[in-house]
Amino acid sequence: xxxxxxxxxxxxxxxxxxxxxxxxxxxxxxxxxxxxxxxxxxxxxxxxxxxxxxxxxxxxxxxxxxxxxxxxxxxxxxxxxxxxxxxxxxxxxxxxxxxxxxxxxxxxxxxxxxxxxxxxxxxxxxxxxxxxxxxxxxxxxxxxxxxxxxxxxxxxxxxxxxxxxxxxxxxxxxxxxxxxxxxxxxxxxxxxxxxxxxxxxxxxxxxxxxxxxxxxxxxxxxxxxxxxxxxxxxxxxxxxxxxxxxxxxxxxxxxxxxxxxxxxxxxxxxxxxxxxxxxxxxxxxxxxxxxxxxxxxxxxxxxx
Length: 304
Hints:
The protein is of the alpha+beta class. The chain has helices at about 25-35, 115-120, 130-135, 145-150, 165-185, 190-225, 230-240, 245-255, 280-304, and strands at about 1-5, 10, 50-55, 80, 90-95, 100-110, 140, 145, 160.
C-alpha cells in the first residue's frame, strides 16, 4: 500500500524505487531490513563521494562576439582542461545548438578543501557555494574566464552530480528496459512468478553492472584524477596505449544494448556486433499458442 502526499492510497503488487542515488524508497527499505538484521554490512556504509561534478547550460550567447564565434560553427566544439597538482579540478566546455555552451567542473574531493555543508546543498549558486565559485571563476576556457560562462547560466540550469562517465544514466535506462521485459513476462501475477521475474532481472543485470562500475571507476580516475598514480596512469593510457585497443573496448561496450521485447525492435544500423538479448517467454508462449490454434483450424477445415 502506497500513501501519497494528498493522502490518497493505492495497492499494487510491485513498487519500483527509481528515485536516484539518494533514494527515499531504498532508505525506508534499508531501515526495515536493518531492524530485522537482514541488511548486508556493505549497504550500511555511506556513499563514497570521490568526485563531485557541477554542470550547467548557458542562455543563448552572441556568436558575433569574437570569443563566442565557435557557436556559429557546424558541429560541436569541445575543450577539456585538467588542473595541476595544486588544483584538484578538471573542467570542460562544449557548444550545443541555440548558441549555448554546456560546461562542467569536476572536483576530486579528497584533495579539495570543500566544506561538507557545501556538498550537501541541493543546488549550486553564489550565495550557497561562494567558496567553490571563487576558486573556479578564473579558470581559463576557450571563451574567457569560466566565471563569465557561469554568470550566463540560470540557477535552474545548474546541477550537482557524481561523475561516472555517463554510466549512471546509461545503466539506469538499460535497467528500466530489462526490468520492463521481466515484469512483462509475469503472467499470471503470483508471488512465485514475481520472485522468478525479479531473479531473472538480477541475473541479467548484476554482473554487467558490476563490470560497468569497475570500468567507470577507472575512467573517472583517467579523466579527473590528480594524485601522482592517477596522473601516471593517464599519461600511460593516452600516450602508450594503441588507439585500436581503445576502439575495440568502445565497440565491446556498445554491443550490449537491450530493447523492449514487447515493442518493435529498432534496426541494426551500425557495423559493430550486438549481443543477443533474452527473448520474452510470454511472447514465445503466445506465439506457440497462435500457431497451434492456426494448425487446429487448418485440420478442422480439411476434415470438413
